[in-house]
Amino acid sequence: MPQAASPALIDDLVVANHVLVNEGVLDGFGHISVRHDREPGLFLIARSMAPGLVQAEDIVMCDLDGTVHDSQGRKTYVERFIHSEIYRARPDVMAVIHSHSPAVIPFGVTGQRLRPICHMSGFLGAQVPVFEIRHSAGEATDLLIRNQALGQALAQSLGGAAVALMRGHGNVVVGFSIQQVVFRAIYTEGNARLQSEAMRMGEIEFLSPGEAQAASDMNDEHLGRPWEVWKRRAKMAGY
Amino acid sequence: MPQAASPALIDDLVVANHVLVNEGVLDGFGHISVRHDREPGLFLIARSMAPGLVQAEDIVMCDLDGTVHDSQGRKTYVERFIHSEIYRARPDVMAVIHSHSPAVIPFGVTGQRLRPICHMSGFLGAQVPVFEIRHSAGEATDLLIRNQALGQALAQSLGGAAVALMRGHGNVVVGFSIQQVVFRAIYTEGNARLQSEAMRMGEIEFLSPGEAQAASDMNDEHLGRPWEVWKRRAKMAGY
Amino acid sequence: MPQAASPALIDDLVVANHVLVNEGVLDGFGHISVRHDREPGLFLIARSMAPGLVQAEDIVMCDLDGTVHDSQGRKTYVERFIHSEIYRARPDVMAVIHSHSPAVIPFGVTGQRLRPICHMSGFLGAQVPVFEIRHSAGEATDLLIRNQALGQALAQSLGGAAVALMRGHGNVVVGFSIQQVVFRAIYTEGNARLQSEAMRMGEIEFLSPGEAQAASDMNDEHLGRPWEVWKRRAKMAGY
Amino acid sequence: MPQAASPALIDDLVVANHVLVNEGVLDGFGHISVRHDREPGLFLIARSMAPGLVQAEDIVMCDLDGTVHDSQGRKTYVERFIHSEIYRARPDVMAVIHSHSPAVIPFGVTGQRLRPICHMSGFLGAQVPVFEIRHSAGEATDLLIRNQALGQALAQSLGGAAVALMRGHGNVVVGFSIQQVVFRAIYTEGNARLQSEAMRMGEIEFLSPGEAQAASDMNDEHLGRPWEVWKRRAKMAGY
User: Fold this and answer.
1) At what angle do helices D7-22 and D178-199 cross, to 10 degrees?
2) What residues of chain C lie within 8 A of the CB of D198, using their CB?
3) At what angle do helices B224-236 and B7-22 cross, to 10 degrees?
4) Residue A208 pairs with which residues in a beta bridge?
5) Which of A56, A58, A62, A106 is nearest to A81 (CA)?
């Protein structure tokens, strides 16, 4: 049996589940994981359940083949391969969110590129790739990332980026910590809303590549600030 | 007097009323019914009242002719024929929702087809019919489904679909259980919002027919997950 | 000193203030009045204050010249002439709301006609007039209805309609009761939101004149239903 | 050590932080300051923290060079130069808000001018300037106002206006009091939402210059009314 993860990490993962629901990134579906802090070949994720109801005792450990290691034999999400294959392909990634975050969906199905409209979303960088499951699994899937091969195809599509859209499905966001990945998921949704609005007004002046990088680096120094607020808002809402 | 329905079914129907209000599908109007679990020729529905205030004691039984069977002689909604005629025409249907769910209204009045933009709304399938009351009752009705003939015309327009729009009025959604019909009503509204947004961005790549079917089948295995969340949110909101 | 108004009427007026704030029709500004139930030459309205904070002791009486009759010498809103002149011109009107209800503003400044998109807003009828204060008071007013002459011009623009828009300012809604005028104000805002959305999708099939009339008559029989819900929501929100 | 500021002013500043978060102008970022009531060369602002969590003990004093005067040696926001340089350039300004208020962002990146669509936003006047940081600091900044030179450039761009947009970043709003600047920030966001909606409907009839001025003067006499409501709403929400 692997070592236990840090209780503080598990606490943050539970809070992150509630924050993401409360801020409108997750609804009854979607999931967030974090790489185990003592076992880099494992990650922590809730058992298969609604993220808004997750508590510390619901967190299970999963390895990079997608096998759950749980003394109670519980299962996690069908789409755990999103997480396992990204952790395998990207040693820099410590946390992963998969959501159906609503404002992002239209960008995945129309070919419009999601780009950083303001400094809060500099992490979007120059390129937000779009994953098309039809290229890997044909025209009649249920769109879920159900196995390692699909997880690998998605990880390949993500490449070195922070965010990848999934056509007709949602998106995946990665980060070097729970706080960073939550920040990115919330501002990916926000950027989508603002860009969609601005596109109707005229030509948009997006961040330059240099601005996107500098703003992203700067925001990484302030991740604790919104985290405290989102945490408090989730509590105020009753989570 | 017919047998009593299962108390658990009545409880779910009460919760469903509150969930649909809390998630923005119903306001002061609209209704949900479920087929009686022991008497397939009857269905359960609230007496004529605002759905957000419905309690177990407000549920009455109605037959497929639209006659209420209630020892206290209470009435139900004028538009009970939406329910009675769909239950008559569709033995597979166990639950029906009629709402004025806002994002769907524009699709009913502009000729734009509502289609599945992502896997959550695969149940929309290839065809969401639009019911035009003028074809049955002329140019000067109050748009309500006030009698059996109008209920039959609506059921005919629905055909084998999961959802039918009603021009200048709202929509009707059917399912094999309370949980499924609530899921479908909430994601019909969500799909309408997203499709409306995406239509302004460009040509939309909708789910293929195979994807819609596979995604719909898959979602039917997970109906309990969002149901628990919606239930909890309704409680958190004070229902 | 005039007779006291019915305490039940005053209670409803207080509740209506809170409901209109809670449903997003009023913010810190705007007002609702009701004609005195025993003195048709007077109406009841809050003293000059934010509608969300109004209590029964804040209600004052005002006559059709805009003079407040209050033993404590309190003032009401500068724009009381909206109310006084409509009550004078329209003996059928028992309640008046003036708001800056947001979705309606764009219709007042672009020449787009607000029309009934669904049966809930049949009361909009064939014609929602737009009041242009420049025709009465020139190009440099603060847009407020500050005196009898402006109140008369607005009442004339309203004519026999249920709603009039005020360019660059807001709108006024009238009804035969508090419940009806609240219903109309809330669904005027709702109709504006839906019509604005639908206009981007294509040509809209609005209610026919006969449908608008029939639907409006029908809704007038069910005004108590949403009223109870809005009342409860305002209480749940803490008003 | 400078004199202490009035406790009432500090209380209002704390409340203003919460109101701006609760009304959607600030999120985890952004800040509001007020000029010290006894030391015009100082201003009061929270230490570097999320505005929704600010309490009276978090307020520090800062001078017009951007140096914090705090017995505990605490720091304030990196972007304090927004405040210090505007206070220096504009003796009439007593309060400043910097936000990423969402509906305003699209106007900063598309060249569309923000203009007063209704009387509540007359303070926008004829001209809302847009600050382009590239003109001062090149193509690869993180967009923050990190030093006096950038603060001066922003203040120069603001000129005598009430609001300036900051491309790809947010906006700055100034006023003669906390209540006025909060009013302006909230209605700047509201105006952006309405103008964006109206632009899709057709040509907009904006307020004339005379109307904008008269409406702005009029609103300045009623600043206490919405302030009480926003304060109460922030308390109802749990701040």
Assistant:
1) 20
2) 105-106, 109-110
3) 70
4) none
5) A62
Q: Which residues of C touch D (CB under 8 A)?
A: 21, 27-29, 48-50, 52-53, 100, 102-103, 105-107, 109-112, 139-144, 167-170, 196, 199-200, 237-238
- Give the helix ranges, DSSP H, for A31-125: 80-89, 105-110
Residue pLDDT, tens place only, A226-235: 999 999 999 9
Cα(B215)–Cα(A77) distance, rounded to whole angstroms? 16
CB contact under 8 A, B141 and C225: no
The tokens describing A190, both together, are 């926000």
The residues that bridge with C165 in the sheet, in sequence order, are C130, C171
What pLDDT sits at residue B91?
Answer: 98
CA distance C96 to D170: 39
Strands (E) across C70-140 are located at: 95-99, 130-131
CA distance D234 to chain C (A): 12
User: DSSP labels for D137-149?
Assistant: H-TT--S---SHH
Q: Do D28 and A117 touch (CB under 8 A)?
A: no
Q: Across the interface, do C198 and B111 touch by the CB < 8 Å criterion? A: no
Instruction: Say how many residues make up chain B.
Output: 239
Q: Which residues of C touch D213 (CB under 8 A)?
A: 140
Determine the Cα–Cα distance for residues D4 and D194; give it in Å rounded to an integer: 42
C-alpha to C-alpha distance for A54 and A66, rounded to whole angstroms: 20
- C61 close to C43: Cβ distance less than 8 angstroms: yes
Residues B114 and B165: beta-carbon distance below 8 Å? yes
Q: Where are the beta strands (DSSP E) in D100-228?
A: 130-131, 163-166, 170-175
Which pLDDT belongs to residue D127?
84
Q: Which of A21, A106, A143 sits opposite B201 (nearest CB)?
A: A106
Name the active-site residue from A23, A79, A85, A189.
A79
Reported residue count of chain C is 239
**Is the pLDDT confidence value at A148 over 80?**
yes
Q: Which residues of C144-175 are buried (b: 16+ CB within 10 A; e: fewer)?
A: bbbeeebbbbbbebbeebbbbbbbbbbbbbbb
Residues of B whose CB is below 8 A from C24 = none
Q: Say how far apart CA C142 and CA C42 lie, in whole Å.
A: 27
pLDDT band of residue B30 (cuts 50, 70, 90) is very high
Answer whether C102 sits within 8 Å of D194, measured CB to CB.
yes
Q: Is the pLDDT of residue A1 over 80?
A: no
Give the Cα separation of D122 and C115 in Å (integer).
28
Residue from C23, C79, C85, C189 carrying the catalytic annotation = C79
CA–CA distance, B15 with B32 (Å, rounded to integer): 11
Amino acid (one-letter) located at C29: F
* CB-CB contact of C85 with C154 (8 Å): yes
- How confident is the model at residue B65, as a pLDDT? 98
Residue C35's DSSP bridge partners are C43
**Strands, sheet with C42-46, edge to edge from the N-terminal-most edge strand:** C68-69, C59-63, C42-46, C31-35, C95-99, C170-175, C163-166, C130-131
Q: Please answer whether residues B185 and B99 qualify as being in contact, where contact means their C-beta atoms are separated by less than 8 angstroms.
A: yes
Can you list the alpha helix ranges (DSSP code H) found in C134-204? 134-137, 148-158, 178-199
Q: Is A79 a catalytic residue?
A: yes
What average pLDDT does this structure show over B88-101? 98
For C4-31, what is the mean pLDDT? Answer: 97
Confidence of residue A127 (pLDDT cuts 50, 70, 90): confident
pLDDT in tens, D96-149: 999 999 999 999 999 999 999 999 999 999 889 999 999 999 999 999 999 999
Q: What is the rounded distance in angstroms from the CA atom of residue D120 to the CA atom of residue B180?
A: 46
* Position B1 pLDDT exceeds 80: no
